[in-house]
Amino acid sequence: MKRSYGFTLVELLVAIAIFAVLSALGWKVFDYVVKVKERNAEHEAKLSQLQEAYQQILRDTVQAVPLTANINGEIQPALVLQNGRFNFSKTGVTDPLNQGLAPDERIEYQYRADEKKLYRLKFRNLNQTGNDQPDSSVLLDNVEQFKIVVLNPSESDSWPDRAADTNNKDSFAMLPRGIKINLAVSGTEYEWLFSLLNTDYLQDKKDGR
């Protein structure tokens, strides 16, 4: 008589238990890998936005010029830093399609703490009326802290300098040597320094061009 071979019930239960344990471990590993990938993608997106914001501010400050603005009939200094408000004149606008675009414009950085966002506002002309609407874009999200000071060379939280003669129009056309931005984004603090000495523009003015 031939003896039949097979698995006993106990062996089947042990095999099922081992398979269940391995499956659970495999799922945990897979879930961990997915979460790490998502965190890395989120980190890369935040880093990319931070780099783009830095490059945008760098381009703006490199093109800052000592030109006053006429806003609704009131002469504004080339750069204004008062009570957290920061705006300045810049040049470098190109007009390849001959649309009559002005070569200079007014830039403002506006931090809205309630939204935790840093906005960039762009007025397409230094001469504005109260009805002019700026182009607005978000430079940074998740901004928990934002502060700008001017460097001339010492730090100051206001410009024009309080000691400047406000009746002297030349003082309105002056720029500090640079600005310093301190900000905190998603729990990480940064300090950015930018020069405001547009040497090409100053040289052109000196040469009468």
Automatic annotation (TrEMBL):
It is a single-pass membrane protein. One of its GO terms (biological process) is protein secretion by the type II secretion system. Gene3D superfamilies: GSPII I/J protein-like. InterPro entries: N_methyl_site, Pilin-like, T2SS_protein-GspJ, T2SS_protein_J. Pfam families: N_methyl, T2SSJ. It comes from the Bacteria. Keywords: Cell inner membrane, Cell membrane, Coiled coil, Membrane, Methylation, Transmembrane, Transmembrane helix. Belongs to the GSP J family. This is Type II secretion system protein J. The lineage of its organism: Bacteria, Pseudomonadati, Pseudomonadota, Gammaproteobacteria, Moraxellales.
